[in-house]
Amino acid sequence: MVRRKSVLFIAYFFPPLGGAGVQRSLKFVKYLPSEGWDPTVVTVKALDYWMTDESLIAELGQQTRIVRTASMTGLSILRRLAPKQAGSVSKPRSQGNMFKLLRKMATCFFIPDSYVGWVPFAVKAGQELLKEEKIDLIYTTSSPDSAHLVGRELAKKSGLPWVADFRDPWTHRLSFSPPTRWHRRRHHQLERSVFDEASQITVTAEATRQDYLSIYPHIDPEKISVVTNGFDEADFESSLNVEPAAERFELLHAGQLNPERPARPFLEGLGRFLNQTPSARQRLRVRFIGASYESDQRAVQELALGDCVEFLPGMSHQNVIAEMRRSHGLILMENDSERGGLILPGKIFEYLRAERPILGLLPPGAAWDLLTELGTGICCRTNDTEAIAAGIAKLWLDFDTGAGAISGAERDQLGRFERRDLTGQLSEIFNRLSDTDI
């Protein structure tokens, strides 16, 4: 009988922590056992993040071992220094000043990020597990980038193969803005050490892979693999019969907003559309589900859109999917920059599976190319309010006339993005590195 293999799975963001950042890790851990790999997860205790989704834990089998460690992160420090103010970040609406403070602290004092205080706790837990269990491979996933420092240390001491997964770029991240040349140089040194020392690098888009190959031309191109994000078919089973309302036109943005992707450009396009088509106002509703900034709230008031735009608190992943299915169109927003063009956001795949047209406010790049390839919606530049208004008008006309000219992707086009298949791709990398056929 062939022995099953074991992977030490290092992931800061893991249920019951919530948000889009946990989905990739959750689904890999969920489906790796069916590929012959048993994950042991090292993650953080739930106190050190402001967003949770307890329902996600139910997706994991009872046999899944999860080791939760203490930490000393920027957020935990803020809680200790100012517990009332720091506690406010758990509210549905993000407090901009708190996050600006946290980012400033991270940029100046915590390298590579405000979660670096978790590293010694995670390394200690990993070392104990390596002594207790027969581990065959180490896997780390970022963000936060400091998770890769954990993997680097454990791989050095154990000699085990190590896969470093980049859900987001590091030095080409949208928010990457080191305060000094020394900080920039140090980040690049750390990033390069991961690329040099890891056995394999995985990224979520070919654009990101090509970008990293240009940054580190000495790296063997075979060392960097693309394993995209995706959707879990099981997440959609309970909402397959959910349909949009016939009497009201609803657009939805699912997921938290942030300073790099503010709502204002969309809202300005919406205001332009309503000025051109005032009859649509009473039947139109736009919802943002998830954390938002006060600046987003102010933009709604300044543009006189309070009667048709609402911000809703975060909700369980299953409920968000049902809301996608209930909508007539889904809003996807990305920063209009070269860095933004590298990003293929995780939500795009669930949007596609929801079988609703997508209005993409995007730069040319990975997300634009995928939507164009699949013909699943309308792409316009992020800050082009005229094009945004025209996109909304097109979706409105299809709703108002019942034409339904723009639909979701065909199911047979989406199979390559199903989480089970993607986990199979990851397991093939594991198998190769462990030199064992599972």
Write the layout of secondary structure elements.
Blueprint: E1 5-10, H1 23-31, E2 37-44, E3 65-69, H2 74-81, H3 83-87, H4 96-109, H5 119-132, E4 137-142, H6 146-158, E5 162-166, H7 181-197, E6 200-203, H8 206-215, E7 224-226, E8 249-254, H9 264-276, E9 284-289, H10 294-302, E10 309-312, H11 317-326, E11 329-333, H12 338-341, H13 347-353, E12 358-361, H14 366-374, E13 377-380, H15 385-401, H16 411-414, H17 419-434
Parallel strand pairs: 1-2, 1-4, 2-3, 4-5, 5-6, 6-7, 8-9, 8-11, 9-10, 11-12, 12-13
List its traits:
438 residues, alpha/beta, Rossmann fold, 2 domains, 7-stranded parallel beta sheet, 6-stranded parallel beta sheet, 17 helices, 13 strands, 41% helix, globular
Describe this protein's structure.
The chain contains 17 helices and 13 strands. 41% of the residues lie in helices and 15% in strands. The longest helix is centred in the middle third of the chain and has 17 residues. About 3% of the residues have low confidence. Strand 6, helix 8 and strand 7 form a beta-alpha-beta unit. Helix 1 crosses helix 17, helix 5 runs parallel beside helix 6 and helix 9 packs across helix 15. It has 438 residues and is of the alpha/beta class. The protein has 2 domains: 243 residues, Glycogen Phosphorylase B (Rossmann fold), CATH 3.40.50; 182 residues, 3-Layer(aba) Sandwich (Rossmann fold), CATH 3.40.50. The protein starts with a strand and ends with a helix.
